[in-house]
Amino acid sequence: MTTTENRSYPKFGAEIMQRPVRVVDLTREIFEGMPMWFGHQKTFINTNQTHEQFRKTYNTHLGFEAHNLLISEHAGTHTDAVFEYDPNGPTLDKSPLEYYYGEAICLDLRSVQYPSFITPGDLQAALDRSGQEIRKGDTVLLFTGYGDATYPELAYTEKHPGLNRDAAIWLAEKGVVNIGVDNVAIDHADDTDFSGHVVCGEYGIVNTEGLANLDQVVNQRFLYFGLPLFIRNGTGSPIRAIAVFQN
């Protein structure tokens, strides 16, 4: 399910949802065994209690089911606080929310094939093809196609293109506040210098990784929302990322 048109609601809820906007879900599902970058905790989910267990335990007519999650701050579709890659940067609870919502565009980088890096020339060419412009304060999403092609196989975490240092600087110098990508990282899979993250730290901007369905927003301008959980001292957070188009 990727847009509001694909969802089913009870009658009352459906009436509420008839709004003059189109919403595209840019988020990957969270599940036990989901692919993770090698440096982060794997995801585990278990049942805390079932409906029946609750009714028996508390002698109630209505039961409540609940599950427990052991999950990394950087699992699935997630966003980073600057502190993740800069110890002098703000943690999540001290990060301005303006990092995580606002106007956005999505650029088509499918022409860049692994093991190539994304360069400033690639970004400029993609921007020219899009017919859009980058404005100060924008979020810019990069559609490489590798996420859709490899997820959830091992190649998703091990073989994908990414920004070289100059490309990350190119985006930062244009005033981009959040760089998003459909891969497990904005960095190239083989870049052990983590050039994209280094530049984000130098410029005090954030990045968002593990996005989905970018084919539905590519070469367009829209409102982007990828709000993190309010985690004390957090370095990042899973998010529900969406693109909103005014009809």
From TrEMBL:
GO terms for biological process: L-tryptophan catabolic process to kynurenine. It comes from Mycolicibacterium agri. PANTHER family: CYCLASE-LIKE PROTEIN 2 (PTHR31118:SF12). InterPro entries: KFase/CYL (IPR007325), KFase_sf (IPR037175). GO terms for molecular function: arylformamidase activity. This is Cyclase. Gene3D superfamilies: Putative cyclase (3.50.30.50). It comes from the Bacteria.
